[in-house]
Amino acid sequence: MSKAVVSTLYDSDVFRMACRQFDQAADAINLPEEIRDRTKYPRRCIAVSLPVKRDNGAVTVFEGYRVQHNLSTGPSKGGIRYHENVTLGEVAALAMWMSWKCSLVGLPYGGAKGGIIVNPRELSPGELEHLSRRYMQELIGFVGPQQDIPAPDVGTNEQIMAWMMDTYSNHVGHICPGVVTGKPIALGGSQGRREATGAGVAYLVDKYLVDMKIPINGVSVAIQGFGNVGSEAALALSSMGAKIVAISDYTGAIYNAAGIDIKKALTYLQSERILKDFGGGEAISNEQLLETECTVLIPAALERVITKENAPKLKCRLLAEGANGPTTNEADRVLERRGDIEVIPDVLCNSGGVIVSYFEWLQNLQSFYWTRDEVIEKLHGILDRAKESVEYQKRKFKFGRRLAALTLGIARVAEAKQRRGLFP
């Protein structure tokens, strides 16, 4: 028997966490040893240096990455993150989770992820454009509509995608909207894409509350992270009748037992760019938000925020993972022992974004565009089928919901690799 690979290239807490999840799922489905490492580890990674001339004339060199985890099931797909704490290990873990997510919901993609070590708030619009274009320029040999299709993530948005699409299009000599998703509508973006991840989280929350026989009208919701995912989930849930009692960003959190006016919070955020000093409730910490008494808790920021230390203190009925990897392996075990909190795992819960990115890519390839109602209807259909398959797997094998979702996603990727065989 061959000895398993131990990767040092991606070594980090978050990558080890993703690998432990994989190992647990692979053991649960008796995945053959000869296919495990091929399925687990990324296909390739690219590290790039990005010199940018600043507005004051100085040159700063930023570091960026792109990890393509799986190319056996189609072109790879995944966001690009701009954050000062980006690491290669984090990007690799996110790419791995993206593979299982795409596989779980039935998309013809492998997983990928990208990131640049930068605080985008410290760059001017011109500097941000130069950085984004330079990053795409460095990746041109590795991305494309049939190769790898980036999208927005933490710290990036549709404008950044527009610059990247334009850079790639200038290189190939014609407009190529399918090289990225999450673009502005005017450049081939899809109706419904901006709100897709958060709206998908809200849709699944509603579905699981029905299963739990809890009417959504009046339920209390706490959301950690008020970026694209958190804010869109808040808007969708409040429109369904839920009461959003806590929201946060990196500057802190706001709590209001009577409910926060989400539209007012968004207007304030658009003006001030941060939630700090928003007068819609009492100021609390992000840590306090996670332990707030509520019906639904949605971690929608970064990974590894639910830990073995705070997992015993959670006071929610439903944990809906809007972020990728928000719950550590140790915290998962705590929640399993508790048995009083239902979990919608990230690979299912936040899959609405990549599903509508897939729709955008299809529309770009066909040059035929759908209405928002058509997009949302198709999104709900895929989410319903994915939820049903996870619940069936959970019942059949008496798995936890995360294990059920991961085993489905991993098994499909592993089968594709086995069927394709090893290229000599």
* Whole-number count of domains: 2
State Rg: 21 Å
Order of secondary-structure elements: HHEEEHEHEHHEHEEHEHEEHEHHHH
Strand content: 15-25%
Assembly state (oligomeric): single chain
Helix content: 40-55%
Number of strands: 12
| Largest sheet composition | 7 strands, mixed
- Termini separation comes to 20 Å
> What sort of overall outline do the alpha carbons produce when their principal axes are compared?
globular
SS-based structural class?
alpha/beta
Q: How would you name the CATH homologous superfamily of the largest domain?
A: Leucine Dehydrogenase, chain A, domain 1
Q: What is the CATH third-level topology name of the largest domain?
A: Rossmann fold
CATH level 1 name of the largest domain: Alpha Beta
Q: In the CATH hierarchy, what is the architecture of the largest domain at level 2?
A: 3-Layer(aba) Sandwich
Low-confidence stretches: none
Number of helices: 14
Mean pLDDT: 96
The side-by-side strand order for the widest beta sheet comes to 9-8-7-6-10-11-12
Brief summary of the model shown:
This protein has helices at residues 13-28, 33-40, 88-104, 125-139, 158-172, 196-211, 228-239, 262-272, 286-290, 329-338, 346-349, 352-366, 372-397, 401-420, and strands spanning 44-53, 59-68, 76-83, 110-117, 148-152, 220-224, 243-249, 252-255, 282-284, 296-299, 318-320, 342-344. It is α/β, with parallel strands linked by helices and 424 residues long.
